[in-house]
Design a protein that fits this description.
The chain is built from 13 helices and 13 strands. By secondary structure, the chain is of the alpha/beta class.
Length: 364
């Protein structure tokens, strides 16, 4: 099969770029893959560009698309036309990109006979706008099929477009990381360590985690690794809370994007990964934790509870509830659940292979 993927790849950084890169690698095992990517993805009012000059561009990718240049949309469609794909995969991230995606997809439909598949990490975004639903309806009206990663997104998409064919998939394991480089901040960490990892944004619930940690420290000696690039100015409030509460000795705040060669070291050092999201549909961080056999304490949002088995591979608690989160952390450590839960994760994670995901994605 000939497959065109239109989406971000290195030097773009972040989970979506990593996902696309890993998906391409899996597709290339049995298929011929064309990669069409962006040189300018979003205007700054929608999302800041996440490129890194230290990351080499993905080999074979053609960086031609610009959100503000319609001539590049036609160029991308012509590239696809020349390639003659059977399938075009379009990762879907935000409805605010519809003014670019709609004409691009129409051109793709006109110039190729390919089936258009939307790969939905989130059908609707975390940060709501009045244009989300109308723009999403336009986008999905141009799509032949869509794959979603949780039941909640399947239901949302059915309400937006009852005619589209929807495939229920999952977020596969992020399985590319090896223990390569140990950051200096980990050298002196001892005892119990829990990890929050990933972009830090308001909906990630970090403030609830800090409040929970304050309660946990009344009963246990625990250290929090808070690791990720902060967005929307939340870093100032986080630093203020840590200092005002006197928790400086119990929190290591790594306020930066973590390169791939350092990722494994953070997960390797942690006993458990904590995701206190206030909203969401699914998370690549859970699948990264599972790859390293780490249990997860998370909130019951989106499809998190479909992956984290409460009382087996971690704990699932109500969102926006620092008391419940603190109780789960205390129960994990006082109950000595690390070994048991880790063993269960090893068994559970076999469901989430990339080969199975590709089989669902390309199924008729």
């Amino acid at each position: 099969m000939r497959i065109t993927l239109v989406g971000t790849v290195p030097p773009y950084k972040g989970g979506i770029s990593e996902f696309n890169t890993r998906l391409i690698k899996e597709l290339q095992k049995e298929h011929e893959v064309q990669i069409i990517s962006w040189k300018q993805h979003y205007p700054s009012v929608v999302m800041k560009e996440q490129t890194d000059k230290n990351i080499p561009p993905l080999e074979g990718a053609q960086f031609v698309l610009s959100y503000k240049n319609p001539f590049t949309w036609n160029k991308a469609a012509n590239l696809a036309k020349a390639f003659k794909p059977d399938v075009i995969i379009i990762p879907w991230l935000t409805p605010l990109a519809t003014p670019t995606y709609a004409p691009l997809l129409k051109l793709m439909k006109t110039k190729t006979n390919a089936k258009l598949i939307a790969l939905c990490h989130n059908v609707l975004p975390h940060k709501k706008t009045v244009m989300d639903k109308p723009f999403s309806k336009i986008f999905f009206s141009l799509i032949d099929e869509a794959i979603v990663h949780c039941e909640q997104d399947k239901e949302v998409l059915m309400k937006l477009n009852s005619k589209i064919k929807i495939k229920k998939g999952f977020h596969p394991l992020y399985d590319k990381y090896i223990l390569d480089k140990k950051p200096a901040v980990l050298n002196n960490l001892k005892g119990n360590v829990m990890l929050f990892f990933g972009f830090i944004r308001p909906y990630k619930g970090v403030f609830y985690l800090l409040d929970a940690l304050y309660e946990v420290l009344k009963q246990l000696d625990v250290h929090l690794l808070l690791v990720g690039e902060a967005w929307d100015g939340v870093e100032h409030d986080i630093i203020h809370i840590i200092k005002e509460s006197g928790m400086e000795k119990h929190v290591t705040f790594v306020m930066d994007y973590v390169p791939n060669e350092e990722v494994a070291a953070y997960f390797d050092r942690a006993d458990v990964v904590v995701l206190p999201y206030t909203s969401g549909t699914q998370s690549g961080i859970i699948q990264t934790a599972y790859y390293f056999d780490k249990p997860v304490i998370c909130t019951n949002v989106g499809g998190f509870s479909e992956v984290v088995k409460d009382g087996k591979t971690g704990y699932v608690v109500a969102p926006r509830n620092e008391k419940a989160l603190a109780e789960a952390i205390i129960k994990f450590y006082k109950g000595n659940k690390k070994k048991e839960f880790s063993s269960n994760v090893k068994k559970e994670k076999v469901k989430y292979g990339w080969d199975t995901y590709v089989e669902i994605l390309l199924s008729k």
